[in-house]
Design a protein that fits this description.
485 residues; alpha/beta; 5-stranded parallel β-sheet; 13 helices; 21 strands; 18% strand; binds flavin-adenine dinucleotide
Amino acid sequence: MADREFRVVVAGAGVSGLFMTETLKRAGIDFAVYEKAAEVGGTWRDNTFPGLFVDVLSRQYEFPFQPNYGWSRKYAPAEEIWAYIKKVADDRGLKKFIRFNEEITAARFSEGRWHITTAKGNTDVADVFVCATGFLHKPLFPDIAGRDSFAGTSFHSARWDHSVPTEGKRWGIIGSGASGVQITEALAWAGCNVTQFIRRAQWVHIRENPYSSWAERLKLRLPGGYTREQRRLWQFINEFDRWRLEPGPQREAMEREYRSYLDCIKDPELKAKLTPDYNLGCTRIPKSDKNYYEAVQLPNVSIVKGQIDRIMPEGVVMADGTQVDLDVLVYATGFDTHAYMRPMKVVGLDGVTIDDAWKDRIYSYGGIALPGFPNLFMLYGPFSPVNNVPVPLGLDQEIGLIMRLVGEARARRAAVAPTAAAAQKFLARLDPHFPGTVWVGGCKNWYTSSQPTPVLWPLPQEQHRAFFADAPAEDFEFIPVGAAD
Ligand SMILES: Cc1cc2nc3c(=O)[nH]c(=O)nc-3n(C[C@H](O)[C@H](O)[C@H](O)COP(=O)(O)OP(=O)(O)OC[C@H]3O[C@@H](n4cnc5c(N)ncnc54)[C@H](O)[C@@H]3O)c2cc1C
């Protein structure tokens, strides 16, 4: 006879946490979600900078359980994505499960359960702990001398200060990544005086972003229309996006196309500054809806390329001595992409911490679990991001396997973890495939940083699907824990 109810705790209420919440709700399992912020949405709550649009087709950025027929554009603006996520949480009654403004700071596996502590000093105990804490979540600031001395306003792109009026200011944007490109482009077309500081040029996707027509929206609502369109999108992902994984004519054609975008730059010096010297796709490709290359040729825009030497009260000084005076400085400098759930302190079997486990190399089994950490699961952990598969779609596969494992562990009154051999086998399967991908060689990117390989899935997406559908039983060990029912 069970003496307590089986319970799950989830950290984070972004897209991943909400998908998990809906799944646990449907399964009728007792659970709680802790979210350190005051609202759902994660990335889409935090990133509110001008010019942010979703990278992938809006219709790919949907929870499979809640179609949206009403996207305004082919690639929706960020506020529309956030509104959709909030609507999902409201429509499905998910918020009542979430404890907002409560960060989980520690989780220790002891006596068969996870003992959780929050920043408020509250505690919880769960059989299963799921970290849905994001991989582009912790803002990263560059190590530049004098950063605190700046006399104007400064902030990270993921913490946009909407109290600062855009007009009448001299804007400095540090960073040439996806955020830096989109912000520069938006401020440029708004007529602001803007200087973008770049260390290297980026490949930029100049794309059309038309409004959705009523006919397109209607097509989705026709009998079988939505399913048909979703199937077509998956087919597109499977067939078209292989250029990132293997060399060949598709990759060459893509490079030619991207190079041609640069042809609209009239000044040869500017064109040279903005021409990348590494292969296409090595870094995450910024998406430009209002032609970044046209925007940077406006008289109100400057591109300053090189190393920043220091920041002073007036602005930025480059290594060659050039000084740019500014009123607002934006750090579009990315995220600590290998933090995952950290700084949370997670302690597994035998007192081993996540930091210990990842000392030599960040790893996982399938991006969702780790040997020695029974009944601990991650959503979009290391090696999860799949080529260009939108995050909500990849979650379906991860959560499917987690739920099967949790069900099995619960039935056996055990806690489940992948074996060390299975995690090694997983890495050994992926490692040989990295050399042919666009992510290795030629550039520094967030996928790799200090790691021996990128922390991405380097195989076609159907193999990702198959991996999760067919994970063999011998990859897991079940540790008896007692009486939860
Ligand atoms: C600018 C930008 C644009 C992007 N565009 C795209 C795109 O077009 N397509 C795409 O597929 N992906 C895109 N991404 C990736 C994006 O991060 C994912 O699509 C998705 O939003 C990740 O969701 P998540 O829930 O896993 O993580 P997050 O959205 O990061 O959510 C994690 C949540 O966990 C909470 N949290 C973290 N730690 C704790 C803790 N210890 N205790 C409690 N709560 C905690 C956070 O507050 C947050 O709400 C983009 C990312 C950025 C930064």
